[in-house]
Amino acid sequence: MMEDFEPKILVFACNWCSYAGADLAGTSRLQYAPNVRIVRVMCSGMVNPAMILYAFRKGFDGVVVAGCHPGDCHYNVGNYYAKKRIVLLKEMLDFIGFESDRLKLLWASAAEGKKFAEEMTNFTERIRKLGPQTKFRG
Amino acid sequence: MLVYEGDFLKTVASKLMKEGCRVYAPSEIAYTEINHDSQISDVKPKKSVKEFLFPQNEVLIGYGDWIEKVPLNRERRAVVGVKPCDARAIKLLDRIFLEGFEDPYYRARRENTIIISSSCEPDAYCFCESFSSPFSEEGADIFVSRIDGISFVKAVSEKGKEVLKGFESDLRNPTDQEIEKFRNEEERVRGLFRRSVEAEIQEKMKEKFDSEIWKEIAIGCVGCGTCTFLCPTCFCFDMLDEGEKKGIRYRAWDSCQFPLYTLESSSHNPRREKWQRLRNRFYDKFLYMVESKGNVFCVGCGRCISECPAGVDIVEVLQEVSR
Amino acid sequence: MDTETEKIVRNRVAELLNEDVEAFVVFVRKETEPRERITVIKGPEEAEKVALSPLSVNNTARVLLEVVNNFDGKVGVVAKGCDSKAIKGLISEGKIEREKIHIIGISCPGIVDYRKLIAFSPEDVIFEDGKLIIKPGDKEIPLEEVIHDNCRYCRSPSPVIYDEIYGKAREPFDGTDDDEIEKLPADERWKYWIDVFEKCIRCYACRSACPMCYCTECLVDPVNLAISPMSTAEEKAAYPRFLGKTVTPADNLFYHLIRVFHHAGRCADCGECERACPMDIPLRKLERKLQKEIKEIFGYEDEDIPFLAKLDIIPEGR
User: Fold this and answer.
1) Of C30, C67, C272, which is closest to B313 when you measure between CB atoms?
2) What is the dihedral of CA C2, C7, C9, C15, to 10 degrees?
3) C-beta separation of C151 from C74 below 8 A
């Protein structure tokens, strides 16, 4: 039915851990879904719910916020803020009837290139099953 | 003035619907679309009728490689049961959008929207009697007044005469008794008003510009802009672009009560304080527009009083000024 | 908030204005209709205008925030339960100094929803024993009939911060606050919210009325910019804009969701947003859901430090 639907995924990757992890996936020549567009931010804690909703408004089908593991943040507590925000945002998105599965929070360290690649591919498949996002699209 | 036996609003709404015209009637929130003449009601909607001629969002141009013109909205629509205050406001808005520079978007909508107003009775907040009357026909294309089972109908404009052409056999001249009844009803309704303001307040306003009363009144004011958005005669707008390489330029309602309304590019803001913006609203409507266009830009609908969350009351303010 | 408490408060305000308090933020009755508004009085002779009843609906914390820095001396304020929650929040965020204000706390029985009261065409209203007496006609109505819906969910009708306290509070709400909307499937929920936000005209009244929305630069308003004479043209042109002024239901939902998000853990539950809305949109539903989730998932409610500052709470399994 939707075999030719290619989801568009936006990833906010933190500079110190997950972006380095994505880089490692690249240098190790690991294949993962090409639908993923990565935006480098300094810390996952700077990702603001308005940015995530803006991504949906502009037509993205899925958004991933990737940061360091708890306790490993370069700025000590940034990923705690990210966790709080994403957890609450998912609850509120469910409340208003928007599929909160389209938003994912991922902890990936700089050495986990393989994990990053796998998570991206799995997430893309999940979004492919959910179909294109039409609710917030402007 | 002609007479129709029965409820003319329902009849004309049905006929226009059959002709393929989209018909709107008052509901609690706004003038909403109806598909059956039984849905016409008498309430005063919160949103005024200005959104039919001057909508909240209007796309002006599109841009990409070059500028793309957007088609003007020439859809044939009719609003039935418009309050006389809202209809009079259209006449005032015509002086802004059609005199001097003619706004093509406004003109296209104005030519294709039929306004059928209906007389009404005041509620606790109305004060239109200070400027005209609830039986006024200004601004409408057809004016209808339903009294005791018959309707008094008057075609006010050329467009109205066109619409009434199909009803020649149903409309007759009024008897002297009926004219008497009409006049009595008008007298009775005019006596029901609980509020009134002095429209000739311009000299006193000039004296009170630097008075301390504006700071006092502004303490409770929230600066929300509800009064300007619901006012039938407020017309300020802002222009924004959306889209970087390809997009649209649109205009949206703006409010003089917003803090950055007068923010200039140099970062100077002549109305930084809330009391300055509050004062500006009253002065604009009752003094500056009189000086530039000759009309007070208020029709007495009372929406700014009933919807204000802080209890700022235009009637009290003007009483304070005229003291 | 009966006439007894009103008299006591009037006397206290006059006394305090004679002592070290320079100005007082109080409620006064309007002349043309039975409604109250907030004003600031400076002299003890003006204290006889002070009114206090279930018609005192607005939030004095918002006015206090605006006027407190206009005076060098102490500023007094009359605060109900919800108002005092807002004042406590503003103090913990550093917007008001505790020593500079004097709070007369009022334990609140609930306030009137003016839209329900107007159906009775009142010309004057008096309160006695938990009932309203409406003139003309001396019609008696119990307060519960015209009370604002938000007051039924109030958890802190008694002030949480005060210098002196008067009045008798209603029973605080301690049930579960589950909305029926949560039982519907996702698509119906979306349809419900889109229908609700079809009415929104983006007048920003909710934001202006809220005591906790004091940012001069709002994230979801495209024209609120903090610029100085030194701002370059590139800076102004490249200003991040998440939302324009397009008034569509999805964009309205965006605006309201982000606004409510910025009140996570800070909301005073005063209901001003819903009262200010000219289109009668049920804004409190969104806000209450967020506060409920914060309490259930993170266990945070009404503490002295802001919600984001508490770092020891991180939920597992989500």
Assistant:
1) C30
2) 180
3) no
A9-128: what fold? Rossmann fold (3.40.50)
The whole-angstrom separation of Cα B127 and Cα B190 is: 10
B225 reaches C (C-beta below 8 A): yes
pLDDT at res. C314: 61
For residue B190, the model assigns a pLDDT of: 87
Q: Does B102 touch chain C (CB under 8 A)?
A: no
Q: Nearest CA to CA, how far is A133 from chain C (Å)?
A: 13
B143: left (phi > 0), else alpha (psi -120 to 50), else beta? Answer: beta
Instruction: Please give the Cα distance from C30 to A1 (Å, whole number).
Output: 65
Would you tell me how many other CB atoms lie within 10 Å of the CB of residue C269?
20
Per-domain residue ranges of chain A: 9-128
Q: Do A50 and C193 touch (CB under 8 A)?
A: no
Q: What is the ipTM of this complex?
A: 0.90
The pLDDT value recorded for residue C193 is: 92
Average pLDDT over residues B260-277: 87
Provide the shortest C-alpha distance from residue B226 to chain C (in Å): 6
Q: Report DSSP state, residue C185.
A: -
Cβ atoms of B293 and B95 within 8 Å: the answer is yes
Backbone φ and ψ of B25, nearest 5°: -145, 160
Mutate to test the interface with B, among C246, C273, C283 (most CBs of B within 10 A): C246
Positions of E strands within chain C: 21-29, 36-41, 74-79, 101-106, 124-128, 131-135, 139-142, 164-166
Distance set, CA B300 to CA A89, B117, C114, C252 (Å)? 45, 16, 21, 30
Tell me, yes or no, if the pTM score tops 0.80.
yes
Chains that touch C (3 or more CB pairs under 8 A): A, B
Task: Please say whether the beta carbons of A53 and A75 come within 8 A.
Answer: no
Question: Could you tell me the residue ranges of all domains in chain C?
Answer: 3-166, 180-309
One-letter amino acid identity for C240? P
pLDDT-wise least confident of A74-88, A90-104, C212-226: C212-226
CA C105 to chain centre: 15
C252 vs chain B: nearest CA distance in angstroms?
Answer: 13
Q: Which residue on chain B is closest to C246 by alpha carbon?
A: B57
Residues on chain B touching C239 (C-beta within 8 angstroms): none
User: Are B259 and B280 within 8 A, CB to CB?
Assistant: no
Q: DSSP class of residue C112? A: B
As a whole number of angstroms, the distance between CA A118 and CA A25 comes to 10
